[in-house]
Amino acid sequence: MEALDAALGACLDVNNQARSVAEEQLKVLSADPRIVPELLSRMQAHPDAAVRQLSAVLLRKRVTRHWGGLAPGERAEVQRVLMACIASEAVHPVRRSVADVASVVAKQAVPAGEWPELLGFLEQCGGSGSEGHREVALQLFTALADNIGKYMQPVYPQLVTLVGRGLADASEPVRLAAIQSLMPLASMATGQAEVRAYHDLVGTLLAAIGQALSSGSEDVAVAGFQALVELVEVPSPLLQPHVGAVVTLCMQAGVQRALELETREQALQVVHWLARYKPRQLTKDKTLARSVVTALCEMCCEAPPPGFDDTAGVLSPGAMASQALDALACHCAPQHVHPVVIPFAKAACASHDEHARTGALNAIAVITEGCAEPLRRKLKEVLPLVLAGLADPSGLARGAAAFALGQMSEHLQPEVVGHYAAVLPALFNAVGDGDTSVQERACYALDAFCDILDDEILPFIPTLMEKLLGLLQTTQSHSMQDMALSAIASTVAAAGVAIVPYAPTLLPVMQHFMSVDHREGLPARCRATEVAGLLLSGLGKARDGGQAEAAAMLQSVAPGCMQQGLQGFELAAAQGGDAAELREYGHSLFACVAKALGPDFALYLQYVLPLAVASCHMDDGTFEEVDCDGDDGDAGPLGGISDDEEEVGGRAFNVRTGVMDEKCAAVHALGAYAEGCPAGLAPHMESVLTSTVAMARYMHGDVRASAYGALGSLMVCTHGAWPGPAEGALSPQALQVAGVVCPALVEGLEDDEKHSVSVALQALTLLLRSVGLRAFTAEQLGAVVGGVGAILAGKAACHDGDDDESDGEDEGAGNVEAEEELLAAAGDALPALAAALGADAYASQAFAPGGGHGHLAGLLQRMGPRSPPDLRSIAVGSVAEVAEVLRERMAPHLEKLVTALVRELRSEDAVNRQNAAFCVGVLCDGCGQAAAPFWSQMLQAMTPLFSPEETGETRDNAVGAVGRLILAGRGALPLEQLLPTFLGGLPLRDDLREATPAYTALAALVTSGDTAPRVLALAPQVLSAFGAAAVQPGLPAEALMQVGRAVASLQAAYAQQLGAAVASLPAEQQQGLARLMAEAQQQQQ
Q: Exposure string (b/e) for 563-588, b if CB count within 10 Å is 16 or more?
């Protein structure tokens, strides 16, 4: 085959045209089975090493196709030549390529009982005196393990010896080859004997890494650390006996300043991955865990080495330590982290070294997410350090402080909101910092903080607008513009209708940025589009509240904003490439305008619906078929000749994540159109529903979640657009849509991502409340009840991965948040199910002890002492909500519930105490005398909640709970001891909804002939409480009516005795009581 020699030579030519012609020639030649012996001979004997390697690469890609057509003698010759080449080839890359060919041939031959000499040849090379033979033996094993690993299982001990000998070899290339063979060998460790044998190998690896570090062979050390990272992810406990030694070695390398930064980073990566996958093993030795956190804190404070370039792709010591510390905080139990970091940070923040102060603030920042729960309790201790850091003379420290404050804003809610009066002024100053890096981080922190504010933001809006708009006018930095606009978006969202007076100033600025058409300015255009949507949403809410000016402005500016939004789609098409963000924010703008304009948005549907549907069906990646033997079909004769490519059988999927966000926004917009103008959307329901259901089956959980939410809106839209012929009945159109929506949402309960399941369940709850049972078949309704039970029990499909780690690691912070959302969604579904099914049916089917669906058992499990506090709080709130529907049907469960509730009343978490107090009150109200055996226990547990040190919300809920208990027990209670405490909790301060049970109870006591004499001694205090209520703004009308009736009754029965007490009240309170009494008398007439 002279043509083959010419083609091989041309493939190595630098001339692209000649190479392309040669590749076409090789494609033709490769179809002939004779290509195998021809390539084999050139791989063995050609004088040019490049041709030998190219022949090996082509042979690897073609031998499988022709193997079946070779005669037995030809197959044997291929095997003989391959072993001879491996033994004799002097050029390393060629030898490795030949080993790869041997692996592909072995995959065909060994299962058929051919090539029995292969394993003996492997052992022979491994024991050779030649460094090259020892190296290629390990490379050959690595290649073989992927293809015939199960056939090598009987000789596992010999393979362990081979690799162990290689790890201790004097030759660096051999040691590197041995390290690279560790993972293939690990995949074969399927039994206890293999795992025990591998344990010895890990010890040898650690010794090899240690020797490499001491001798300056950092390449070997880096490869060893990378192997350890891979071993951490292996399900089998291959590292278990050595975790302490692994951590010690990695930390010694990580903190050693004499080592290269890459070496140190790889060492800390091992600790990072141990924290992620084996947190309990990592923290089993508490002293070691503490030393790791301390060392990482110290490393956070390390200055970058001289000449360090942060754009070179290598992290600074402080950055790599911060990453590892973040992993420990997020994946290990918080008690191993924050007790070390906080004292360290306090001391370091007082240092004269700016890097120490910067490192301390960065350490606080990175542990905030993972240690959120304890840091909420320590906020008063930690926040002053961060606020002081914002005024630090060092720009590095100020930037770190701003970042830390942003993290606190994201993760320490709601406690951090209470410090807004100190946080916002500090951030205002930081936004005006002369250091651009500090400004950017301050904008991020301001964005995050404003995002969690409600009415607290109102006094600061003028300053916020001044600072942020001023920054937009002065900066030329595109990233700064992006951050400032993002902060404005959070401010507008938090302000609600209060932003309306600023709309005339803000909208022209947003429209300016929405006209930007150069690539660098597109992120700012996207943020401005977001702000415009939020402004229009605020105008819509103000219009609905009766503000005529807002209505006029909305009608005036909406067309222009819609036009710019639509132009964004045209710009995205012209830009080409990945312009998904423009479309994403365009859909979000349209959704806001739809909700703001309501039915008037119908005229825009003809433009926006096709865009949303197109985004739903947009291609977001490509599947590539990959042959596990390296045969790439028609991809060209070389298929990419690099012999370093990894090829895995199956389908490779390349994803453009920006398009996923676009799909989320598009499907959310479809739901918004249904909410805003249901009548206008109704004629388009079929195409919209088809696209939304398709997204409910999309591969990415966020897109599925958006689709589940939109499906609920589409069902409600249909029910509203086509009402049923009678109350409770569904129209044919609604039944048709329900036949699509309900199965998709029920299927969503089996989703494998918790957030998606949460949204699906929220949509189902919406349908139960808004549409009713007729939307569901009996089978679907049973699936909903059962799905909720599985969620409460922690046994839903989305829980499958929670407990499958080999050593039972702690859940990460992100998973805990997802679990909280999921449990809250299940809790919200309970009263909806109870109301829809009927209290009796629900209580007997789903809430009875030992019931088939286990709702009660699941809630009690979630309220257990080993459950995280936030989950316990949600479970208690869920019990309270369903108890409001079931009322006296909760009586059989009181004993178990009261035990758990008393424990929560003594919780360290104020929200837990608050929810428990409310739940106790609801149970007393609903169960009446059935709760009498528990009254004393309840009262004793709630008494501490009346302390002045208690939070206002918790104390108010305790007052409401005692009020409900009084209404249930009245004269049977120790009123003489109870009332002084109860009256001490009045007036209410924060949760005014508890006023009705509180004042109704007090009114009942003073107007009942049985109890009035017993409380008469406290008449001055009672009248004082009534007087405060009479002038307190915001109290429910029912509460005030009870006060008026009670005072009128007291005046009629005890006018002479109470005259002095009434006269001692402030004039304003006397007038208020007189007004309430008059109103009560009018109502009685």
A: ebbbebbebbeeeeeebbbbbbbbbb
